[in-house]
Known about the structure:
- The chain is mainly alpha-helical.
- It has a domain of 93 residues.
- Helix content is 47%, strand content 10%.
- The protein is built from four helices and two strands; from the N terminus they run ααββαα.
- The longest helix is centred in the first third of the chain and has 27 residues.
Amino acid sequence: xxxxxxxxxxxxxxxxxxxxxxxxxxxxxxxxxxxxxxxxxxxxxxxxxxxxxxxxxxxxxxxxxxxxxxxxxxxxxxxxxxxxxxxxxxxxxxxxxxxxxxxxxxxxxxxxxxxxxxxxxxxxxxxxxxxxxxx
Length: 135
C-alpha cells in the first residue's frame, strides 16, 4: 500500500521524467562545447595574455657594447642601446610555471593573465547554464 495517491504518484513520475530530460539536454549542451587545450589557452596574442617588453640584451649585459664595457669594445650587433624587444606570453609562461616545466619566478602579470582567462571561461559556462544574459 502506497502513502501517495495515484494522482500524486503520476505527478512525481512526470517530474522525474522532466528532470531526466533536462539532464540529457544539459549533457548535450555541455558535450557540444569544445574543451580548451593548452594550445587554445596560449594562442591569444593580446593583453593581458601577452605583451611586448623591453629587456636587457643577454649578449652585452644591457650595456650596448660587446664585452660589457662602455669604453672598451664594439657596439653590440644584437641590440640597439642595450635593450631588446621581446614578446612575453604571460599565460603560456604561467601554465608552464604551474606544470613545473620552468624555473621561472611567477610575476604579477602571470596571475593577471590566468585570472582573466578563468573569468572568460566562467562567463562562457554561465552563458551555457543560462545564469547570465549575453551582453
